[in-house]
Amino acid sequence: MGEKYDVIIIGAGIAGLTAALYSARQRLKTLVISIDLGGQLLLAPELQNFPGFISISGLDLIKRVEEQARLYGSNMVFDQVTGISPVENGFEVSTLSGSKYLCDAIILAFGKTPKELGVPGEKKLKGKGVSYCVICDSPLFTGKDVVLVSWGYHGAEGAIRLRDYARKVYWVFPGEKPVDDEAMLQEVLRKGNVELIPYSEIVEIVGDEKVEAVVIRNKKASEERKLEVSGIFVEIGYVTKTDFIKDLVELNEKGEIVVDEYCRTSREGIFAAGDVTEMPFKQAVIAAGMGACAALSAYNYIMKLRGKKAVLTADWRHLSMPGKEKEKEGRGLFLKLK
Prior knowledge:
Blueprint (H helix, E strand, L loop, with lengths): L2 E8 L3 H12 L4 E5 L23 H14 L3 E4 L2 E7 L2 E6 L4 E9 L4 E2 L15 E2 L2 H4 L7 E5 L2 H12 L4 E5 L9 H8 L4 E4 L2 E7 L6 E6 L4 E6 L2 E4 L3 E2 L30 E3 L11 H22 L16 H8 L9
Parallel strand pairs: 1-2, 1-6, 2-3, 6-17, 8-15, 9-10, 9-15, 10-11
Antiparallel strand pairs: 4-5, 5-6, 7-16, 12-13, 13-14
């Protein structure tokens, strides 16, 4: 059996990270499991309607909330949840890497899931060189050759981040240009280690235990090219994926999770927040609020499990930040597990 947590939060977007902040502030042992960091908010170059900021990028907002959650002691692993099973006294969460974790309560906050390419070798090599999060995994490929499949402003940001770690970045995109902003494109190319590969698509990812090469097809010339690389980053958008919980909690006709005003699902001990729920207004501030609500509800649920009075309805108290002490001791940090 895996390590036991009070709360496991699935998803590291604004809803999941806010839930982690509120859960950790109540001194609950908190774990966040996510395939990426930031979710759809990373696609937002500028937010002008998040309270407290005249203007802030989605990435900067996520980094701030991540830091808050970390300072109060939240832990995080980058992995893909493949199953949730009710067990005696809680739940068991299984991941693609083969890890298993136990918990008293779960918060589902995974919003939409990164789109996959759907090519041979992709599923087998997930977490073994196939990544869906540049901000999460780029340091792992320092000095190595990688492929980036993305486009637009978000793709350019990813290319800039990758070029500062990787030896060579092959940027694959389906059109003539990867981004319309010429100044940003020139910034991507400034270091000379990014090669643009237009009119192209990935047809296969090659490797046994890890990524060894990628096969690219030029759609205009009908030619294929094999690149020897150590990794491939896929950032091509998001889709809703709730099939793995369809027998666990109630979903609506759109596949969204049904919740009540306390962010409780149809399954006792499981809560949900953010864009993965039936909430019609898909806004960052609403997702964050739901994350806080879900965490406070999970706290009350856990207190009742332990025979204590559960009356927490707010989180106004001043607390020290145990994460700072843990950082000094080498603990309390977000972990990188594959």
